[in-house]
Amino acid sequence: MKNIIIVGAGAAGLIAAITAAQNGAKVTLLEQKDRIGRKLMITGKGRCNITNTADKNTFIKNIPGNGKFLYSAFDSFFNEETVELFNNIGVPTKVERGGRVFPQSDSAVDVVDRLKEKLYELDVNLRLNTKVTKLIIKDAKLTGIQTIHNEILQADAVIMTAGGASYPLTGSDGSGFVLAQQAGHTIKDLTPSLVPLESDIPWVKTLQGLSLRNVRLTVFIDNKKSEDVFGEMMFTHFGVTGPLILSVSRKIAMALKKNKDVYLSINLKPALTPEQIDARIQRDFIKYTKKQIKNAMVDLLPHKMIPIILDLAYIDGNKQVNDFTKKERMQLVEILRNLPVDVTKTRPLAEAIVTCGGVNVKELNPKTMQSKLIDNLYFAGEIIDVDGYTGGFNLQAAFSMGYVAAMAVTQE
Predict the structure, then answer these.
(1) Last residue of a domain, one of 313, 346, 379
(2) Which residues have CB under 8 Å from 97's CB, separation 6+?
(3) 154 burial level (CB within 10 Å; 0-12, 13-18, 19+)
(4) CA pair distance 147, 126, nearest whole angstrom
(5) Largest CB tally within 10 Å, which of 114, 161, 201, 254?
(6) Domain range for 364
């Protein structure tokens, strides 16, 4: 019976522990926090977006951070296997918009509870509040680990699934990178991914809490169009967030790191042509013909936005509707279709959903997740320099890597 230690009870670690135990290994799962799956608990806004129904090529496109590294892993364990695994442990699933797969209960707690039950069923030795402080390596071969309690635990193999450096309260505090460096591995630059953005424009902060639906967001980097997406976003006290913002944040973070200028253009009425917007404005102004301009736009925009939009369009909101000129209408149409927001920086890495960067994939075997530098050392999950967009892509990547590492360890 092989003696396997897994460091980190997150998405990759839990699947690795279950898989290794099912294949006859003696498994010890170490977690530095007081409970397992803390980051799983907050994914999908607490609903846990387990995976996506997309095909492999679509998955790879949605994992801009070294997605091609996962081809072999996806061939071994992909979305269908993930759904089957969760169904078998008592988590029935459902498919929603965009192919996103969620538990039918809409509860990430259910997912983690069922995984924990499976660990106990398989007699996995789960040890909480146990941080690993050192990898014990002799002659380029790993023989065990040392814990914060100064214990030495021997192992035939160790799978590092300690997470990245985002949301440190969940256990992803970057300590896994320190251990990987101890073993001689290169850590690619850590950058926040799936992260809110900051802006120093005063009016942005006055819209704190305002959500916008069905808007088009265009990203410009050094005045060149970079991204164009459609959906929802929200203003905050520091800038902007929401699904649209998170989806473009990776590329923006990379650009800001290179000191490039970034600004967003928000089209508030993407379904309408300029002529249709103009016609809509005129209809509203006929309806409110005796009112001031600022009071005639209540059907067109959220109330909080009206004074800001008028100011940016250089229009006096106190003017009467009857005094509104065609030139001013064109200015209003333009700002409705191109509301500019400068981006100064991303929120800190600790607030990112995913860490971009990590253990260099060139130092790992993609078919086994084994280190090319140290025998008996494997990696899986966010600790590796692999990251994707929202929609179930990151969790599936973690599950697939965890599975492959466990299979490699037990079948070696």
Answers:
(1) 346
(2) none
(3) exposed
(4) 14
(5) 161
(6) 3-191+354-411
